[in-house]
Amino acid sequence: MRFSRTFFRAAAVCSFVSVVTTLCLIFLHHFFPSTQTLEARVARDSHPVYAAYLWIYFAHPFFVLTAALAAGVKLIPRAAGAALTGFMFFFVWGFSEMLQQALTLVARHQTWSPAYAGAANDASRAAVATYLNGFGAVWDSLYALIVVAFMIANILYALASWRGAGLTRSVSWGYWAASFLSIFTVASGFGWDLETQVVSWLYPLIQPAARALIGVWLWRTGPLDLCSDQHS
Fold first, then answer.
1. What is the DSSP secondary-structure string of the chain?
2. Which end of the chain is more exposed for a tag (fewer CB within 10 A), N or C?
3. How many structural domains is the chain composed of?
């Protein structure tokens, strides 16, 4: 099976785009209000920056997952088991996050929030409020799956690339760093507050930089024939 340079460069572009989407997800929340009540959350849904944030959140996994596929293909000659299993967990992460954000966009943002805001009476509003209040538990459940799959995927890719030289070794450090940060997101996903100020500063520095590095690594990859023993 042969993968062309064009395949890897297209995936590299996706990785570069994911740098932008990652930065948007990190910093856009400063431009729309935080909420504590149901009424405030419904009101926030009409904020244009928040709507853009939701669409970026939905698109983000498509770019990261495409880059992860190409990275997995590139790592197969080095460590096929870790690379293939790692991509399986990246797929679980990507699909779960896409599902989570599709539900957020369609069920909550486009359906229940407008229905709550435009309810004709208190009984109708209370009925919709039940869905809105319960949606948080669904979102949190998917988040718990997302962060566990993401941590395992990064650990496996870090192991698969660890023995590489040069840029491949640097990419491995990026996967290790993402794995370390994932420990804290897994903890938060299951209700354990372990996040520190150091981690909150490290994430905006490490994650975009790692994805940019992966983009460079993929861009420099030539055609790859998995039937041969070549490494790059």
1. -EE-HHHHHHHHHHHHHHHHHHHHHHHGGGGS---SSHHHHHHHTT-HHHHHHHHHHHHHHHHHHHHHHHHHHHHTTT-HHHHHHHHHHHHHHHHHHHHHHHIIIIIIIIIIHHHHHT-SSHHHHHHHHHHHHHHHHHHHHHHHHHHHHHHHHHHHHHHHHTT--THHHHHHHHHHHHHHHHHHHHHHHTT-----HHHHHHHHHHHHHHHHHHHHHHHT---EETTS----
2. N
3. 1
- For 201, the domain range is 2-225
**Is residue 230 situated within a structural domain?**
no
The answer to whether residue 231 sits within a structural domain is no
